[in-house]
Amino acid sequence: MTERECAVYAAKEAAKVILSFHHQRATVQTTFKGPRDLVTNADVASEKAIISILKASFPEDHILAEEGHHATSVDEGRWWIIDPIDGTTNFAHAFPIFCVSIGLWVDGQPQLGVVLDVMSDECFVAEKGKGATCNGVPIHVSETTDLSQSLLATGFPYHEFRRSEPYLNVFKHFLQEARSVRRPGAATYDLCSVAAGRFDGFYEFGLQAWDVGAAGLIVQEAGGLVTNWAGGDDWLFSNKVIAGNPAMHEAIQKVLEMHIPTDVLHSPTMDGAS
Q1: Has residue 147 got a pLDDT over 80?
Q2: Which residue among 18, 34, 67, 88 has its CA within the 20 to 30 Å range from the CA of 158?
Q3: 47, 53, 82, 88: which one is catalytic?
Q4: Domains in the chain, please, with CATH?
Q5: Catalytic one of 3, 86, 200, 204
Q6: Is 257 tagged catalytic?
Q7: Does residue 234 have an active-site annotation?
Q8: Is 194 helix (H, G, I), strand (E, B) or coil?
């Protein structure tokens, strides 16, 4: 199998695992990595299935995954970046928005992204330089240029509440100035919705590499921009991401600059400390 075929197959096999738990809710067991940071046995089983499939075809590749395979850099070599269930809290509550995410980065650059929306069975795929698709149909970011006509998406982290007021001020600004703001609870879903032109833009902090490693490329290949909050290209480990069509990306960044202190914009936390 090609890398693309293998990643799509792994995502679909993982979805089968997740759905088996979803349809038998009594089998779902939830534990806590932090006060609001859930993990379920479905996350663990999904990740195991994905890694098994990827390693069978690419045994020498590295793994960065949410449930136990962490790293702070993918600058050298081939790295599969995996979120076995993005939207674990949604899944744990049977709220039907959760995704499987598989990205491939080579020497620090994204090469492949696959995101499968488990409940809708929409499979978003992008390869570097080859565009983005949803279930095989090409997708593109929206053409909205007016913030007042935009539908935005965001998320709220399960930690880093000490300086939440500036972030809430940004949220309030968009509630007043955009058409509306959505908070589905899964960053990969939000980003793929930007890529498909359903959302015009997205911003969030508290993100991890597995939240954006696949979907970020999908947005880029759909004609969108993805950066950190300061506008830089090093968004994978930045903790803070803006995505959207070019006009909405610029609009979101300007609002962030209005409300977020400069040291925080350039910091991996909301405290302004590196």
Answers
A1: yes
A2: 18
A3: 88
A4: 3-138 (3.30.540.10), 147-265 (3.40.190.80)
A5: 86
A6: no
A7: no
A8: helix
